[in-house]
Amino acid sequence: MVTDEQQKTINKLQANWIWAPDWVDSSKSNAAGRIVRFRRKFNLASSATRTLLHFSADTRYKLYINGFHVAVGPARSSLLIWYYDTLDIAPYLRSGNNEIRFEVLRYFVASRSAMPFERTTQAGLTVIGSVELETGATAVELTAGVDWQAQVDDSILFPTRLVNKPAGLSASL
Questions:
Q1: Under a CB-based contact definition with an 8 Å cutoff, are residues 55 and 103 in contact?
Q2: CA distances from 18 to 26, 41, 93, 151, 171 (A)
Q3: Residue 103 and residue 45: Cα distance in Å, rounded?
Q4: How far apart are alpha carbons 35 and 105 in whole angstroms?
Q5: Is 138 helix (H, G, I), strand (E, B) or coil?
Q6: Helix, strand counts (H, E) of the chain
Q7: 12: enclosing H helix or E strand
Q8: What is the C-alpha separation between 84 and 57, in angstroms, rounded?
Q9: pLDDT for the residue numbered 172
Q10: Nearest 5 degrees, angle CA 105-CA 111-CA 117?
Q11: What is the DSSP letter of 159?
Q12: What is the 3-state secondary structure (H, E, C) of 94-106?
């Protein structure tokens, strides 16, 4: 059973999916997927006491905060229930400049590779949360779409090792 608070979080996450502009969910190089890096830089005047983030990605992510690898996920989901992760990242933040980085691996929806991973038809990253200071004030909003930058990384390939054949042809034994 989902509480009212949990449902509010789920609704916000579902409303805040972001992705790289002009994305094509396929590859001419017979790759299974590509990586998109998301960055959010911000400055804090003092230490954070609590910074609860809720986040998920389609298909997989690694989360780095100020260069520290702090999480990987999400848990395998289904199209009926998509899981998200929750983490208090305040211990990784500091006074001054901070950077949150997600490296998202998107397995193409039409790919024959990575079949154990459920994929939606729309690639994405969703993040909600904010930095709270000792005064209880919200210092920085971290919700996806607010000052996040996305960059596709074409330098890393995930070859399928599968040969694409024209329709109607079969392999001879």
A1: no
A2: 18, 16, 23, 12, 41
A3: 27
A4: 4
A5: strand
A6: 1, 11
A7: helix 4-15
A8: 8
A9: 44
A10: 55
A11: B
A12: CCEEEEEEEEEEE
> How far is it, in rounded angstroms, from Cα 42 to Cα 140?
8
Q: What are phi and psi of 84, to 5 degrees?
A: -130, 160
| Location of structure tokens 């702090």 | 70
Structure tokens at 62: 């690694």
User: Which residue's structure tokens are 């009212």?
Assistant: 4
State the Cα–Cα distance between residues 140 and 121, nearest whole angstrom.
31
> Does the model's pTM come out above 0.70?
yes
Altogether, the residues listed in the chain come to a count of 173
For residue 93, how many other CB atoms are within 10 A of its CB? 21
Residue-wise DSSP of 29-56? T-BSEEEEEEEEEEEESS-EEE-EEEEE
**What is the CB-side half-sphere exposure of residue 133 using CA atoms within 13 A?**
14
**Residue showing tokens 């986040």:** 55
pLDDT per position as a tens digit, 120-168: 556 789 999 999 988 777 889 999 988 999 998 888 877 666 555 545 5
